[in-house]
């Protein structure tokens, strides 16, 4: 069985790919940047987790996991890269806000930070990284 941490990443990737995917390229823990022919790219990766044990021996942990959802977009003729990434950022945010429990897997998915960067690959590329706190539990014997 995968850990709850791997399951959270899987659930976020699945949510971003559900129905009409937010991008043709949604990856987990991918090394950046994307291929030059990709107009957009979304990368979901774990950052860290703070685990708080219960006072009862053997009880599960309350966990706050930090997760980054990186949105990359290339500008095109007549469109600045910050406007290209804005559309992708909006789609990602709306998709994850629609079900902040990830189908009941977690207690909450809260956006806590947004960071921008530009020209990640020598082309007119912008990135917007949403950082989320994912509140959930993990077993103390298996981290499931």
Summarize, please.
The chain is α+β, with helices and mostly antiparallel strands. It has two helices and five strands; from the N terminus they run H-E-E-E-H-E-E.
Largest sheet: 5 strands, mixed
N-C termini distance:
7 Å
The average pLDDT is 92
How would the global form be characterised?
Answer: elongated
Low-confidence parts lasting 5 or more residues at pLDDT below 50? none
Helix and strand composition category: alpha+beta
Radius of gyration: 16 Å
Give an overview in words.
The protein has a five-stranded mixed sheet. The model has no long low-confidence stretch (mean pLDDT 92). It has 144 residues and is of the alpha+beta class. The protein has two helices and five strands.
